[in-house]
Design brief:
The chain is mainly beta. It is built from three helices and 32 strands. Strands 1, 2, 3, 4, 5, 6 and 7 form a seven-stranded mixed β-sheet that branches. The protein binds zinc ion.
Amino acid sequence: MRKLLLLCVVLALGLPVKAYVVSGYFWDTGVGTFHVAIPGTAPSGISWNDAFKQAMDSWSSIANFQYLLATDAVDPCSGQMNGGFGDGVTSVDFRDTACGMDFGTNTLAITLSSGTCVAKCEGDDRVRLTDADILFRSDENWSVYNGPRKSGVNDFRRVALHELGHALGLRHSSDPPSIMESFVSSVETLQSDDIAGITSIYGDAPAALTLSKSIYDIAVTIPVKTTLPGPTDSFSLNGQLTNTDNKFNNRFIDIYQYTFANDSDVTLRLQSASFDSFLYLARINSGQELLSDYLFADNDSGWGKNSELKKTIPAGTYWVGVSTALSNATGFYDLRVDASSVGTNAPPVTYLSTYGASIQINPNPSIAGLLKADDFMFGDKFLDLIQFELATPTTLRIALTAAAFDPVLMLARVVPGSTPAANLVDESSLLLDDNGGGGTDALLQQTLAAGTYWLGVTSRNAFATGSYQIDSTVVVP
Ligand SMILES: [Zn+2]
C-alpha cells in the first residue's frame, strides 16, 4: 500500500514546475464514489453538500471519468489515523486536525490518498487508488461564493474543486491560471491546464456531437451529457471564440444544447479574461425555433465584464450561447451552469381531440413519456399524442426509443385551418414506422411543410406499457 498526503495552502509554496503534474495515483475503473454528508449550510445559503457535489460534477464532465455521489455519512478519518491506509470508502468533512496530524500553517484542506502500486512503486508512478478522503479545516472561515477571492473568507467550492483534483491524481500546478495552483486565487472553475492534466490520466471525455448547421446557419454542440436529470446538476466547460466561428448579431458565438428534465432554477456564469462576454439562454422547440418567452441575454451582470443569468425555467431544451459584446472579439472563456429542480414540472397543456384522444401540446425536441394503462386505446394498443408546430418548412429526424416495449411512431399533419376543438388529421399525410431506428426502435426522417403536427406513440404489441423517449433533430443540409 502507498499513501500520499497533499496539503493545500493559502500562500504560494509552489515547486518550480511547469503546468500540471500527475501524482501517479489513479482510479482504475474510471469512476470514484464520494460519500458526501457534511452537516450544515454556508453563510451564503447553499448547503456544503450541494457545493461539494457541484465541484464533483465539474470534474465528471471533462474527462473519461465520473465522480458518483453517495449520501450516507462515513467518517473520512476512518482507517486514516496513525498513518493508516484508510477504509476504502472516500468521504469528506470538516475536522480540527488532519486525522490526528497538524494541518500546519496556511493549510486550508488536505487530501489523503491511499492505493496499491502497480508499477515502479518507488516513484509512485502507477498507484491504483483505494481511498481518497478530503478534510477541510474547521477553524477556518468558510462560505460559498463566486468571483474574486475575498480576504478573510474562503470559498469552499473552489477549494473542493482543487481537493477533488488531488483525489483524481493531480499534484499542484504552477502554471496559472489553474484550479490546481497551490494557493487559492480568483480562479473558481477548471482551466485548460487542469483539463490537460486530467485528460492525460483518464483520456478525453466521449466526444460531443456538433451539428455543423442549425436553422440559423450556426453550429450547435450537443454534449454527451446533454440531458440534465436533476434534482441538482452542474457543469462547467472551457472553450474558445475564434474567427472561424459563426456570427450572431455580428459577433462570434458558440452554442451548446442542453435539455433540463425538470422545471429548474438555473444560474449561468460566463467568464473571459480576453473579451467582454455576452451570454444567451434560449428555449427551442422541435423545429429549433427560439421561443421568445424564454429568450434571455446578459452582458455584465457578473463581476467585471463577465456575464451572469439567473432564471427559473420550464423543463425543455435550451441553447446556451457564448458570445461577446464587441464585434470580432475572440479568446478563451469558461462557462459554468448550476441547476436545481423546483417542485413538480408544470403540466403540459392538453385538450381533447375530436377522436377522443387527449392531445398534449409539447414544443420540446426531447420528450420523456410513459405509455400507461389509462391512456387512450387505439384498437388494443395504448396511444399518446403530442402536438407541435413548425413555423417554416423543416426536415425533422424523429427518434423514438423504448426499453420496455416495441414502440411504433406515427406522424400526421393537422388539416390547416381546423380549430383545436375540431381539428382533423390529414390521413394522406400519415407516416408510420416500427423498427427504422434499429432493434425495435422507431425513426422517421421527413421534410415537413409549415403547420401543426401530431406525433403518435404506440406499441407493436397489444396492451404494452412503459417509458419512452422522443428525440427530434432538425436536419440542415
Ligand atoms: Zn492542493
